[in-house]
Amino acid sequence: MLLRLYSCLDMLGFVSAPFEVLAEPRRRQILDLLRQRPRLVGELTDELGLSQPGVSKHLRVLREAGLVGVRQDAQRRWYELRLEPLRELDAWLHPYRILWDRALDDLEDHLDTMPDEVRPRTEG
Amino acid sequence: MLLRLYSCLDMLGFVSAPFEVLAEPRRRQILDLLRQRPRLVGELTDELGLSQPGVSKHLRVLREAGLVGVRQDAQRRWYELRLEPLRELDAWLHPYRILWDRALDDLEDHLDTMPDEVRPRTEG
DNA sequence: GTCGTACATGCTCTTGCGGTTATATAGCTG
DNA sequence: CAGCTATATAACCGCAAGAGCATGTACGAC
Lengths: 124, 124
Hints:
- By secondary structure, the first copy, chain A, is mainly α.
- Chain A is built from 6 helices and 3 strands; from the N terminus they run H-H-H-E-H-H-E-E-H.
- In chain A, a hairpin with a 2-residue loop joins strand 2 (about 70-75) and strand 3.
- The radius of gyration of chain A is 22 Å and the shape is elongated.
- The model of chain A is unreliable at about 5-15 (pLDDT under 50).
- The structure holds a DNA duplex.
């Protein structure tokens, strides 16, 4: 969805495509597999239980998003994980992470200043 | 895409829908706006430059994914951010974060054991 | 009650994704 | 060269998502 526009904007350095790309469960599965070691298209095809052209198509999307890299070796192509685009995901998440850290801090403060009578039991 | 299946699996506690939900730029934009404070549908409509029913539809998706909550006040509905589902995103990202932290460590080790002649200049 | 506001829902249309099959391309083998 | 392997690309199909418009619903004001 909107992938075409986004891969276009992406080339101009505007938007983070990783979200759209990783919305696909199979593509996340591919990344999970590549986390262990580089793989051939054939391996991925077996693991995913998908047609080879289907896998190639997903790999193309991942490649254009910079999430995987390819190393050619005769007819074979070793696909490997590239981490950089995931940092954009992480960056988007950051302000939210701050919020939930702060929520935890507030909770602690609340417990600290709570009178003993109504204070929940702390184990140990 | 596959949203129906996923919201179904989600109710059973199986899969993380946040990826599919946040693939939509407008929905991310909504969350970004709600990060500051709760908002009315009308406000969001103005900010997004989208039709009101369009906004309501996105809000419905966000609600079903647990990413926003609603508080009703007469005819008005205050939508507010809910952080919990974002933790699933964070959790998925975690093994990758470990990888890129390790990559940094390896780089440091490499620099530490590198002979001075070929060692890149460190500023300062 | 009627009217106006704030929002949700239903419908229809278009578009684009994800899938498969068939075919093209590239490289090795003999 | 022909034939096999590994992968990419093309062509096509089905379906669901996103957008707009019209309508329904709930609540307050009068």
